[in-house]
Amino acid sequence: MKPELKEMVEELQMAFNESVCESDRIAEVLAEIKRSGYEVVLALDVTIGVTAAKQEHVEETPVTPAVPGQFTLNDEDRMFLSGLHVAAD
Asked: Which residues are CB-neighbours of 75 under 8 A, at least 6 positions away?
């Protein structure tokens, strides 16, 4: 990942964190849970995937694999699987 893109993604992650921390509604619900006698640990996992924007639409033609049952994954496929926590290596 390019350094400037990495920096922007990190900034986006921080923005999500700040939004949650500054949310009055979330603070209210957490306080209500604590008043009910429970301790709360809040952990969020934000997955951010980025791909370069395509400049033009190119119609893809289906590719028949040379070996039956064999396939290739593009970057979008890998990003989708990563979002599902599926290893695509």
From this structure: 51
Q: Within 13 Å and on the Cβ side, how many CA atoms surround 83?
A: 10
> Does residue 10 register a pLDDT over 80?
yes
**What φ, ψ does residue 62 adopt, rounded to 5°?**
-60, 140
Q: How far is CA 86 from the centre of its chain?
A: 13
Q: What is the pLDDT of residues 46-72, one digit of tens each?
A: 778 888 877 766 566 666 666 667 777
Report the alpha-carbon distance of residue 11 to residue 15 in Å, rounded: 6
Look at residues 42, 43, 47, 44 and name the one whose alpha carbon lies nearest to residue 86: 47
The pTM score is 0.46
